[in-house]
Design brief:
The complex is a heterodimer of chains A (about 475) and B (about 280). With about 475 residues, chain A is an alpha/beta fold. Helix content of chain A is about 35%, strand content about 15%. Chain A is globular, with a radius of gyration of 23 Å. Chain B folds into two domains: about 1-90, Translation factors (Elongation Factor Tu (Ef-tu), domain 3); about 100-255, Rossmann fold (3-Layer(aba) Sandwich). Chain B has a seven-stranded antiparallel beta sheet. Chain B has a seven-stranded mixed beta sheet with strand order 11-10-9-8-12-13-16, with helices on both faces. A two-stranded antiparallel ribbon of chain B has the order 14-15. The mean pLDDT of chain B is about 95. Classes of the chains: A alpha/beta (about 475), B alpha/beta (about 280).
Chain lengths: ~475, ~280
């Protein structure tokens, strides 16, 4: 029998209709059925190169779990996936697979790479539906050491899960009232349902990890006090949670939000269900979101869902330089968000009651490449024009919250406020303290933070056993 | 959950909770605040810390019913619990031996000023306190504040008790009397803090106010509480809440405190309907 011809197209992912989804907060991507997953899995040629594994920051045995799907052995797919990744439902949804595992897939040279992210998501969702949220594993032999993890975002959860699996007693300290960090307050429900985040947090807790919520390290116990009392090592995964503003005139007008505030109100505090939930959020009729990253896309799409008539994204460079995932830009465009590229705000205009009514912008053009390798945006003199708005969201990026660094002796910080730590191990210059994720790299991706948490956990384990 | 150990209804609409929060109690300092969330559907609101008991593991807050959250809070009783009680947040009030410190408290802010007056006294300052309320029935803790002060002046807007008028009257007289005042701490409604600052400015006496803009997380994450001080944008939650009153852009503060007036009204009306059903 002849070898079946390789299908170079991936199985499409069912999605909510753009017209409908712009009015609700339900998940946009609907996930594969078992048949669709098996069909997509059957495209994997199980090549020897395993480029996908090399492209994965947490080294998942990708061909292994894909083969298990193809064989219809879902419990085995779950086992393989979760042995490396405690948060597969999250990663399957928000990892930029197109620049990682899928970019290095052998099929990528000939056609569409395997939809690894969609399959990962399918396995995680299958587990939650069929095996319960937390698959119990045999408790490891206690190692007798205690580790404090500060922050419960992707880096902290991953470090905690790995350390617990290695037999250490782990406590996570989280400043907010729920665990998950940016997964809970930042990424919207329609892209990452909070039920999924909660289920994966519950899984980490089921490994024996203790969660201390409402615990602001630096204001309650400091890192030094943790080390001097109960803990043998500390991992700092406090992220990059402090918003940046443009420092242009009119920025403190009413109706101007940082993306952090807007998304925290909507996602964490569930303001989209106000007044059932007590936290309000302004619903602009004409909304401008400033920025070109995933957070800008999330903010624009939230504003649309809250009922805005018109949502613009203003970005100072052109489409190719946008740091957002291609998929999210396409989703936003499909939903009717209008992109005003090569546009940069000059000032915000307000009325007598301090409400924003307009945003004056410059047109920009691209010059020579700058430090980031992208072409530098330059102001076109005399090109000012005004857009009428009643709400603005600034999604300009975030930087580390200085709270932990400023209350801890002996940490080294960079001029961007990030912590200096070894690239491989996450070890800081301070004894017994490791760090990883956005607190070290500045704002980056969920999966890179998870990779950092994983590497630090291994190094902490080696130290504690040393 | 954080258990309410004690509830006192101090005057109509103003209540005291003593809350079991040992970790917060261990670290609390004068001028700091907590963020409280009543339950799953509640919002996060900042409330200043009135007192703490490090050994007993409790923190005392005093709040006034002004909207949905504080009205819901007021319905809780001792034995009940609050979902979240995060703190101590913000920078502590700067305490040192200045000489003579005037503590001005408007309304229920007497609760906030109490630990500050106590700490100032302990550092060896002469403490002169001015306590103002709308009327006698809204006045509380006069005796407590008197016991921490070398001198106490009480005012009521309607003259039902103490001197008739607002706190800026006696404050101005004090400064004009030749009393050498080294620092003023003014805490209360924003409008009162603004006028205290305007009163002291011609005398060149540093005046510290405790700003109360709208907050969400209270840890520097959202920037909702941004205020302009000396022409620079600050986050009240982490850079304050204490600021130099002569440097504050008061009009901006007032405007930003009004952002959610419509929503606050809508929320409160729907809550009242749900309670009366």
């Amino acid at each position: 029998m002849a070898k079946p011809k390789l299908n170079l197209n991936r199985v499409p992912m069912p999605r909510q209709d753009p017209k409908k989804r712009g009015k609700n907060f339900n998940e946009v991507a609907l996930g594969y059925s078992l048949e669709q997953a098996k069909e997509e899995a059957s495209r994997c040629i199980q090549c020897k190169k395993r480029g996908c594994v090399a492209g994965c920051p947490v080294e998942i045995d990708i061909p292994g779990f894909i083969k298990a799907i193809g064989d219809g052995d879902m419990p085995e797919a779950v086992r393989i996936l979760k042995s490396k990744n405690a948060l597969p439902g999250i990663c399957g949804r928000v990892c930029p697979q197109e620049t990682q595992c899928e970019a290095t897939c052998s099929l990528a040279k000939k056609g569409a790479p395997i939809a690894i992210g969609r399959l990962e998501r399918f396995v995680a969702d299958w587990e939650r539906a069929n095996m319960g949220a937390a698959t119990s594993i045999d408790p490891p032999k206690p190692a007798g050491k205690r580790v404090a993890v500060v922050g419960s975002g992707p880096a902290g959860l991953t470090a905690a899960a790995d350390l617990a699996k290695l037999g250490h007693s782990v406590t996570i300290f989280e400043a907010l009232h729920v665990a998950g960090g940016v997964l809970m307050y930042g990424i919207p429900e329609f892209r990452l349902p909070k039920e999924i985040v909660q289920a994966e947090v519950d899984y980490v807790a089921s490994l024996g990890v203790k969660l201390e919520l409402d615990a602001v390290v630096g204001k309650l116990a400091t890192v030094d006090e943790l080390l001097n009392s109960d803990y043998h090592a500390v991992f700092l995964g406090t992220g990059a949670g402090a918003p940046m503003f443009m420092n242009i005139p009119g920025e403190n007008l009413n109706g101007i939000y940082s993306a952090n505030e807007f998304l925290t109100r909507v996602n964490l505090m569930k303001a989209y269900r106000f007044p059932e939930y007590d936290t309000p959020v302004k619903v602009g009729r004409r909304v401008v979101v400033i920025g070109g990253g995933n957070v800008a896309m999330d903010s624009a799409r939230c504003a649309l869902r809250l009922g805005a008539d018109k949502v613009y994204i203003i970005y100072r460079r052109s489409e190719v330089e946008m740091p957002a995932r291609r998929e999210e830009v396409e989703n936003a465009m499909e939903e009717g968000i209008e992109f005003r590229l090569l546009t940069n705000p000059k000032q915000m205009l307000g009325d007598e009651q301090n409400w924003v009514v307009g945003i004056e912008c410059y047109e920009m053009e691209l010059g020579e490449p700058d430090d980031s390798g992208r072409r530098r945006p330059i102001v076109k003199e005399g090109s000012e024009f005004t857009i009428d708005v009643d709400m603005v969201v600034e999604a300009l990026g975030t930087r580390p919250n200085p709270l932990v660094a400023s209350t801890t002796e002996g940490l080294e910080t960079t001029r961007w406020g990030t912590l200096v730590a070894d690239e491989e191990t996450g070890k800081t210059v301070k004894d017994k303290v490791w760090a990883g994720g956005d607190i070290v790299t500045g704002a980056a991706t969920v999966i890179s933070a998870m990779g950092a948490g994983k590497h630090a956990a291994a190094d902490i384990d080696a130290y504690l056993r040393g | 959950m954080y258990k309410i150990l004690l509830k006192q209804d101090l005057v109509p609409g103003i209540h005291l909770f003593k809350v079991a929060a040992p970790a917060v109690a261990k670290k609390a300092q004068p001028g700091q605040f907590v963020v409280v969330r009543i339950d799953e559907k509640g919002e996060r609101i900042p409330l200043t810390i009135a007192d703490w008991d490090r050994e007993g593991g409790s923190v005392t807050i005093v709040f006034m019913e002004v909207g949905t959250t504080t009205a819901r809070l007021a319905l809780l009783e001792a034995g009940g619990a609050i979902a979240d009680f995060v703190g101590p947040l913000g920078l502590p009030t700067h305490i040192e031996k200045f000489g003579t410190v005037v503590c001005v408290a408007g309304g229920f802010a007497v609760a906030t000023i109490m630990p500050i007056a106590r700490a100032m006294r302990q550092k060896g300052n002469k403490v002169i306190s001015i306590l103002g309320a709308r009327s006698q029935d809204l006045l509380f803790w006069e005796d407590k504040l008197r016991s921490l002060s070398d001198q106490l002046i009480v005012t009521t807007d309607d003259g039902s008790y103490g001197r008739k008028g607002v706190v800026t009257g006696p404050l101005k007289e004090l400064l004009e009397s030749g009393e050498k005042v080294d620092r003023v701490i003014a805490i209360g409604p924003s409008i009162m803090m603004k006028f205290c600052s305007l009163t002291t400015e011609p005398f060149g006496i540093k005046t510290i106010v405790s700003l109360n803009p709208i907050m969400v997380d209270g840890t520097g994450m959202c920037g909702c509480c941004r205020v302009s001080v000396g022409g620079e944008t600050k986050f009240a939650c982490v850079d304050g809440p204490d600021f130099d009153g002569h440097q504050v852009d008061w009009d901006l503060l007032f405007a930003r405190q009004r952002i959610y007036l419509d929503e606050e009204k809508r929320s409160f009306e729907q809550w009242q309907r749900s309670v009366h059903r």
